[in-house]
Amino acid sequence: MTSLSPRLKPWTHRTPWSAWALQIAAALVVGAVVTAIALATQENLADRNIRTGFDFLQNRAGFAIGETLFSYAPADSFGRALLAGLGNTLSVSAWAIVISTGLGLLIGLARLSDNALVRSVSGAYVEVVRNLPLLLQLFVWYALLLHGAPAVATLQEGDVGAFITNRGAALPSLGWEGPLLALAAAWLLVWSRGQTGARRATAWAACALLSAGAAGLAFLRYEAPVVGAFEVQGGLQLSVEFIALVVALSVYTSAYLAEIVRGGLSTVSRGQGEAAQALGLSAPQRLWHVVLPQALRIILPPMTSWHLNTVKNSSLAVAIGYPEVVSVIDTIISQTGQAVEGVVLIILVFLSTSLILSLAMNLYARRNAIWEPAAGPGTSLAPPEFHWPKWRSHLFAEPRQAALTLATAALVGLGVWAAFDWLVLQAVFVGDAADCRRAAGACWPFVQENARFILLGSYPEPEQWRPAAVIVLFAVSLLASLVRRLWSHVVPALWAITLLASPWLMAGGLGLVGVATDKWSGLPVTLLLAGNAVVGAFPLAVLLALARRSRSPVFRWIATGFIEVVRGVPLLGLLFIAAVLFPLLVPAEMTINAFLRVQIALVLFTAAYMAEAVRGGLLSLNKGQAEAGQALGLSRWAALRAVILPQALIASLPSLVSIAISEVKNTTLVLIVGVFDLLQMARLAYVPLEWRPFFVEAYLFVGLVYFTLCFALSRIAATIERAKAGSNASISRHD
Description:
Blueprint: H1 16-47, H2 78-111, H3 116-130, H4 134-148, E1 163-165, E2 168-171, H5 177-192, H6 197-221, E3 226-227, E4 232-233, E5 236-239, H7 240-266, H8 270-278, H9 283-313, H10 325-336, H11 339-367, H12 391-395, H13 399-425, H14 433-438, H15 444-456, H16 465-481, H17 490-507, H18 523-548, H19 553-568, H20 571-585, H21 594-619, H22 624-631, H23 636-666, H24 678-685, H25 695-734
Helix pairs in contact: 2-3, 2-7, 2-10, 3-7, 4-7, 4-25, 5-6, 7-9, 8-9, 9-11, 10-11, 11-20, 15-24, 15-25, 16-17, 18-19, 18-21, 18-23, 19-21, 20-21, 21-23, 22-23, 23-25, 24-25
């Protein structure tokens, strides 16, 4: 099917002069806005006596950074501090990319396993991890390491080995030269397998020399940690913050990579594996040499996008105090007042990192001919459907299958029993904090005592029926969206009522007591931010998608520039712009409260991603749709409105719902800029001394709320996919 080209010459009654006039007008409007912002910024900086420029990077920093790859001291310059933060960002990102790729590959293979139990467990892992916000997972891992790991005082002084404490991990170190040489030797070994003759012999000789050098350096530079009186000394020291960040990023990203791997492997014909088996290749050889290289054509592009997201998500380290580049720049801004320059540095760092990583992945793809067309159609590698009457053949067909089933069942059983024991058997259901401290299980009185505070926040108590009503409105709209027969009229009306009535209820009016936005908190804030971001971003996304496909270069450049810059910068950077930089960009008399500024940042961020989803829907249409509209005598805009755009939106609807799910999770980031959402209220709930040990219960409660919201939205997306598939099948049968 021929797609609708992005440069398709439109039929139009507009003269070239008017088309150019429209482009010039758009360019003038953009230029006027940029000029107004520049003048307002210059005036605001002058009023605050803030100098512009990057000369401050040469000044003495004066603050310490606890963990760096490069040598740094408080006496060094701000530029050196920035370099240290960048090194930490790259280190965390590299570790997370490597671990998440390996873990995602394993889970993706498990999702395609012939063993139904392994397939179900891996599917549950993906479903749970994907439906929980990354920031929540980061807080959970950080709290578990900080409060669950043993203290240094519990270790025996003088012990030598590897240790994990509430201060971090201490591992034997080999220096950086040995592992680097070992990595080079491993790469040469893999490369030599595809070579012959002198090249192969040379590679093997170099591999032997590198291995010998790595072994020698390991022997000379080996250093084991030793338990001292107050701390573990020597070896490789990793902080709690570093470990929590790497683990959270790896686990979260692996769930998405697993689905990407599963989707890519499922496109490979089953005959490819059968042919390789007939040639005598083992299962690992079939996977590594035959199946996976073909699947990379599908896997690599979305995997690259998620690796870019991992780099951007590393900015969440600021929430737990790890000194990555955003945290360091935030400290620099607070000391120097150079907010404009700081934001520019954040944008430059992440845009350049994204471009370099994208370039590296593209070079790899071109070198290995990954963009070439895949093999022809055939029966995919998708596992057979599981039917319980055939449980024996699916779970115990052969000794290896039976061993895998028993091992998986044992692990799952141990996990379920441990959870049941803590949640139910050892738990306290009635009592107070003192009763909970004496028990070994969950403290449900904490949830009973703080549920109202977590959900409704600091909203005035006499008026808390209003945020409760907002929660009910959103819940009813979500439940109605799951019923397909209500989509035509009831669901749009419910969502319109919900999104219009919720701000009125929260703010007050028409006889209700007014409540300022700084009193808004809890679950209503999460729902309002996510709902308004999706609804507000949708028309902007449609305009951006149409502009990016326009024949007018000015519109195309504006839309492309906006989308690429916004997508290349982490959401936290946009939130910093909204919270810190916005007052400097507008005239002093223009004041917008923090909640609205954060809402605007979320709308712009969501619009950039939605625009690409809508553009994908437009590109999926046959150009005959446009030609049919032309044949019916419709103008360009009439055909776009009545024929092309409705079909494109239907095609992109599942992607749009997925973006909506992401927005629910993205709202957790607003706590970093001082907006108290559901997650922040949960963290405040265990601040009182009596409830401080029960952070697990707090995170479990809010995790259940987020999972319910995201799972409901994912079911809506699945329902839309099924409806689309049924509609396409019906059209095919009619044709």
